[in-house]
Amino acid sequence: MKILQWLPSGRRSSATASASTCDSWSLRRRLLLAVMGTSIGLWLVSLSIVVGVAWFATSKVFDDALEEGARLVLQLGPQAEVAIDAAQSSRIGRGDALKLRMYYQLVAPDGRVLLRGEDTPEAAFVPHALREGEATVWVGDELWRVHVRPGPAGVTAQVGQPMEERLELLEDMAENLAWPALGLLALLGLLSWFLIRRLLRPLEDTALRIGAKSPHDLTPVQAQNPPRELRAILDALNGLLARLGVALDSERRFTADAAHELRTPLAALRMRVQLIERELKLPAPLLQQLRADLDRCTALVESLLALARLEPQAEPLVRELVDLDVMLDNLNLEGGQVPPMRMERALSVPRLRAAPALLSSALRNLIDNAVRYGREGGRVRIETMRLPQGGTRLSVRDDGMGVPAEQRARLGERFFRALGTGQTGNGLGLSIVARIATLHGASIHFEDGLDGRGLSVVLNFPPD
Fold it and tell me: Is the full-model pTM beyond 0.90?
């Protein structure tokens, strides 16, 4: 018995909607995003730290080169440019990637440029510099890093580098660091996906074991060496299954015992009514309604007992190849009388693999319903046909008053009866048929009957 079947229709639909909403996100995807998001964040922080340290270190090297260049300018004058390039190459010694050109000036005390190198700005870097040291200044619309070194007679040697060139060098360094790091991040993502998938495999295996459970099997879910986090879930689930099994067993025992205990007193009560009728010679109409009520109670008890027997069992169904013609002949013989309508058969599939006792009970209930709710002198037709996708369709059709389309969705619910039929019943016949169909893995639905009238109950059995 499915748990959702115990809920009212409103709560059942809410539970189904909640269940469909809950599977809109993936734990594996969230773990992967969390790991990769954290890794990328830390990578950006570490890259910033590395670039910052590299910028500080290279700036110190370039500042030392500017200082040495200023000293050479004071000593060599016009020949200083070649000496500066040679000194820079020997000092840095790291290849062409770290060579940045230095621009020099000799500046008079009044700010005039006495001597400057090729492509060096005409205006002094620091027109009024009086002390030695580095400074970051704007010359025109360009930012420069300059070292100022005082010389004799107030003349200063100023050697500078454009900050833009230094930033380009920093960008090249960051790019050279970024591509290997991106490759490592891609490798980290792949390894994280593989490891997370592998570590979450116990959850998938457990989900498969839970999905394999059925109303016939409420044994505990077993898992091989589950992690502690999953073990707590399994313990709670197995406890629920155990309590559910006890509840189902109690329900089945109560229904079966109650139905069984009621059969004898009802039979005895009907016999007493017959004795009273015969001994007191009362008119039949006075006791007819009492006998009808007793018959209805007896039929209800028999139906409840049949439903109790059809509740989930641990043992699978024993199926046989049933000859439908023979089974229908036996049903007619058991009926004791020919119904007041024409019975037709169109068995294009003469044999069906099913549990004989259950199939016989389903056919008996379907034919009884068709006769009860059909019209006098009407027709009842039993049909079988092969489905295109395999399997067999079994249908029982009549041409009676039928059931309105808006009420057909409730057919098969326990104790539901269509209104306006003028017939007595307990509303359990189609419930028994629906339960038998479920046990066979078949589906049940309802269509129009013969000649566009009445009702057709259709069972689609899966392939053997």
Answer: no
